[in-house]
Design goal:
Elements: E1 2-10, H1 24-33, E2 38-41, H2 50-64, E3 69-77, E4 83-87, H3 91-102, H4 112-115, E5 119-121, E6 127-130, H5 143-152, E7 156-159, H6 169-173, E8 184-188, H7 193-199, E9 207-211, E10 225-229, H8 239-250
Parallel strand pairs: 1-2, 2-3, 8-9
Antiparallel strand pairs: 1-10, 3-4, 4-7, 5-6
């Protein structure tokens, strides 16, 4: 069994709360310098900067011989009021879920002066368009509807930053309900796992990962959390195989 270093919760400049310096190219470059093996672009309610990050990682690999594997992802809010990180097996599935979620969210014009800009980038790391409607809104979808939709397209997913006092499953529901299918939970990077488990001993059998939830370049994980993976997967690790491996952790 080998281990790889991951950061599976990163916001690009498409998220209104992220710095404009969080371009896909800058994220990939910082992840490369931090020695990360796998990262995920998980903007609020959109996957539109995932393709650029994936393509720019190919450029970094051509130039330096190594680059992080970029997983297309998204952070979304379910109707119960907590955030979920979704990771997709390919760009097609990511785009389809983006469309599905957009149809199930309120249409609210973005106030750039309040919430921040929402830039989509091209494969040359150039800003090309701003999304006019605010992305950091809740969906109308329940957690059960989100689970069903994500499972149907082969996505991996987990509740985000369960230790936080806001927008977390534990804060909203008190614990992880039995109808939630996954056994994978995310802690924030400043979480005290022991203290969290003392408060929630019923969650001691879950598998925990720690992500940066970075909105600024210096916040990207260094060196990331270690994820065990089968040795035979490493030489040909790609997006579908990584997402499938993470789905195995969900069932752990």
């Amino acid at each position: 069994m080998a281990t790889i270093q991951c950061d599976l919760h990163l916001h690009s400049a498409l998220s209104p709360c992220a710095d404009n310096e969080m371009t896909p190219g800058n994220i990939v470059s910082m992840a490369y310098m931090n020695g990360l093996d796998v990262i995920a672009i998980t903007d609020h309610c959109s996957t539109k900067n995932c393709e650029a990050a994936i393509e720019l990682a190919k450029t970094v690999k051509q130039e330096y011989g190594r680059a992080p594997l970029v997983i297309p992802g998204m952070e979304l809010e379910v109707a119960e009021g907590f955030h979920v990180v979704a990771l997709f097996p390919d760009l097609k599935a990511a785009s389809e879920f983006d469309d599905y979620l957009t149809k199930n969210r309120p249409v609210i014009s973005n106030r750039v002066d309040i919430f921040g800009e929402q830039w989509v980038y091209n494969n040359n790391d150039e800003p090309v368009v701003q999304i006019p409607n605010l992305l950091s809104t809740s969906s109308f979808l329940t957690m059960s509807q989100v689970q069903d939709a994500l499972q149907s397209i082969g996505a991996a997913f987990f509740p985000a930053h369960v230790d936080k006092d806001a927008y977390s499953m534990v804060a909203s529901l008190g614990t992880v309900p039995p109808e939630w299918v996954g056994r994978l939970l995310e802690l924030s990077k400043r979480a005290d796992k022991n203290a969290f488990l003392q408060a929630h001993p019923e969650l001691s059998d879950y598998y925990f990962i720690v992500d940066s939830d970075a909105h600024q370049l210096p916040d990207i994980a260094d060196p990331g959390f270690s994820l065990p993976i089968n040795d035979e997967m490493l030489p040909n690790l790609d997006i579908p195989s990584f997402v499938n491996a993470l789905r195995d952790f969900m069932r752990w």
